[in-house]
Amino acid sequence: MADVWQSSMDHAVAVARKAGEMVRGALKDDRTVMTKSSAVDLVTQTDQKVEQLIIQSVKEKFPTHRFIGEESVAAGESCNLTDDPTWIIDPIDGTTNFVHAFPFVAVSIGFSVNKQVEFGVVYSCLEDKMFTARRGRGAFCNGEPLQVSEQTDALVTHLTCVFRVRGAGTAAINMCLVASGCAEAYYEIGIHVWDVAAGSLIVSEAGGVLLDVDGGDVDLMSRRIVAANNRTIAERIVKEIESFTLQRDDAPLQS
Ligand SMILES: O=P(O)(O)OC[C@@]1(O)O[C@H](CO)[C@@H](O)[C@@H]1O
Ligand SMILES: [Mg+2]
Ligand SMILES: [Mg+2]
């Protein structure tokens, strides 16, 4: 049966590649850094230009679709997920890495309909790795199928004291490492929906498990996530985490 979202997904892959070219080009230029919510929340003109590039090109092709983009939200746009087809965009996931030319920098595009992620595209642009997933149809890296690891002993991306730990500095790539079988798990409290919308589908389509840090179902607006190769490891991580609650991404704006 024809896939109604295939042309949107093809467009996402094409525009992510273009965005990656922009990011690679910008690495050769001066990278002027600004801050957003705190001294460690960085943004560059490249983040803003890449988001404009993606949104503009999607608007031309799919004028009725909606957007949640990191830099648009930072500029005051709302962050509410509706049932409408919605592009959830992190133009550069790993801005700190980008500023330092640390080679893990991703363009992340998730696409949801009826609040369900239909496809995810994460382009690790300095590695030239294009991760894709379509709901119900598997996850791929540069066209090769992805499968989570079968290990029962965990290598974890991000913070924890009981497992062996690595971190790429980008939620999107950390999740693709789990999907690729290079790490068994990733967890984080403090991410935003644009960091994980695409990566979450890539993990689940590669056979992985997603949980909230309290062990319930994952909620992409809650700013908390555990992604693992299997339920046993996900639940072990849930047991170890001292969880806390942050203001949700879709909390009403303060006036
Ligand atoms: O602001 P950016 O670069 O889009 O994203 C910030 C980020 O890279 O920082 C954290 C690193 O662990 C992750 O939560 C998240 O993906
Ligand atoms: Mg990000
Ligand atoms: Mg970003």
TrEMBL record:
Catalysed reaction, written as an equation: beta-D-fructose 1-phosphate + H2O = D-fructose + phosphate; 1D-myo-inositol 2-phosphate + H2O = myo-inositol + phosphate; adenosine 2'-phosphate + H2O = adenosine + phosphate; glycerol 2-phosphate + H2O = glycerol + phosphate
Family annotation (Gene3D superfamilies): 3.40.190.80, Fructose-1,6-Bisphosphatase, subunit A, domain 1
Cofactor(s) for this UniProt protein? Mg(2+)
Q: What InterPro entries does the annotation carry? A: IMPase, Inositol_monoP_metal-BS, Inositol_monoPase_Li-sen, Inositol_monophosphatase-like, Inositol_monophosphatase_CS
Quote the record's binding site residues for Mg(2+) 2.
Answer: 90, 93
The enzyme's first-digit EC class, named in words, is hydrolase
Keyword Hydrolase assigned:
yes
Supply one GO molecular-function term: glycerol-2-phosphatase activity
GO BP annotations listed: inositol biosynthetic process; phosphatidylinositol phosphate biosynthetic process; signal transduction
Could you tell me where this protein is found in the cell? Cytoplasm
- Binding positions (Mg(2+) 1): 70, 92, 195
One CC-aspect GO term: cytoplasm
* Pathway where this protein functions: Polyol metabolism; myo-inositol biosynthesis; myo-inositol from D-glucose 6-phosphate: step 2/2
UniProt keyword list: Cytoplasm, Hydrolase, Lithium, Magnesium, Metal-binding
**EC number, UniProt record:** 3.1.3.25
Q: Which family does it belong to?
A: Belongs to the inositol monophosphatase superfamily.
PANTHER family associated with the record: INOSITOL MONOPHOSPHATASE, INOSITOL MONOPHOSPHATASE 1
Subunit and interaction comment: Homodimer.
Q: What is this protein called?
A: Inositol-1-monophosphatase
Recorded source organism is Oryzias melastigma
